[in-house]
Design goal:
Elements lengths: L4 H17 L15 H14 L4 E7 L3 H7 L5 E6 L3 E3 L13 E10 L12 H6 L1 E10 L12 H6 L6 E7 L12 E6 L2 E7 L7 H11 L8 E10 L1
Parallel strand pairs: 1-9, 3-6
Antiparallel strand pairs: 1-2, 4-5, 4-9, 5-6, 7-8
């Protein structure tokens, strides 16, 4: 049986309050626990509609096979970035309240035009033509479930694909001429390299990931910034 509207609203309220209060949950109550990815997205939609915060952008979780295996999903999951959790370049985030304690180097795209929902999928060329700018960025994801790797696709989507803090960095000049899949990415911790990778970690190419999001989450393409996970590292 599909979740009722009341159950969806209940789950959304529990997760948003847990997010604001830095609380951890074993799981959502059985009477409002999403059993499918679609039900999870319905909870996320309800949370966005009721939380009184603007959506600053979107993120994608599980953009690699390793990431999908880690949290037990078989496809990427989109989540919203909320305005009060979006920070300027150079911001500091206390780690004590974080469960995951990881950060991710990102390619962030600011859209210059909307891609309104339509019957056919947008091509990568159409999506890229709508991009106004690319920025470097940092995402600090976090989950509201104690055993976040075992929550399952429905609860992960409901929990906003484990979105939390987001730091938007500098605009990249001439980014269209950059070989994004081959572009090296390094994460430094206390001045030392903690992890290295490339743009290929994001579904093979950050632009592929962006196109996936534009087509999988109708309406996401009208939000100014979308973020592609590139390289996780311990915080």
């Amino acid at each position: 049986m599909a979740m009722s509207k009341a159950a969806i609203r209940k789950a959304a309220g529990i997760l948003w309050r847990a997010r604001l209060d830095c609380q951890r949950l074993e799981s959502l109550p059985e009477d409002c626990r999403p059993a499918t990815l679609d039900e999870g997205y319905a909870v996320q939609d309800a949370m966005a509609a009721s939380c009184s915060q603007a959506v600053a952008g979107w993120k994608i979780a599980a953009t690699s096979e390793a990431g999908q295996r880690h949290i037990g999903v078989s496809e990427p999951i989109g989540g919203r970035l909320f305005a009060d959790f979006t920070l300027p370049d150079g911001a500091m985030i206390p780690a004590l309240s974080l469960l995951m304690r990881v950060m991710e180097a990102e390619f962030a795209f600011r859209m210059g035009g909307n891609l309104d929902p339509r019957g056919s999928a947008y091509s990568q060329t159409e999506v890229c033509d709508a991009i106004a700018e690319m920025h470097v960025a940092i995402e600090v994801p976090d989950g509201r479930f104690e055993r976040f790797a075992e929550a399952g696709p429905g609860q992960i989507a409901a929990d906003d694909a484990y979105a939390s803090w987001f730091v938007l960095g500098a605009k990249v000049a001439g980014w269209r001429d950059v070989d994004l899949p081959r572009h090296p990415v390094r994460v430094l911790k206390n001045g030392k390299v903690a992890a290295e990778g490339s743009g290929a970690a994001v579904l093979g190419d950050p632009r592929i990931a962006l196109t996936w999001l534009a087509n999988d989450r109708p309406g996401a393409a009208s939000v100014c910034v979308r973020v592609m996970s590139s390289l996780p590292a311990p915080a």
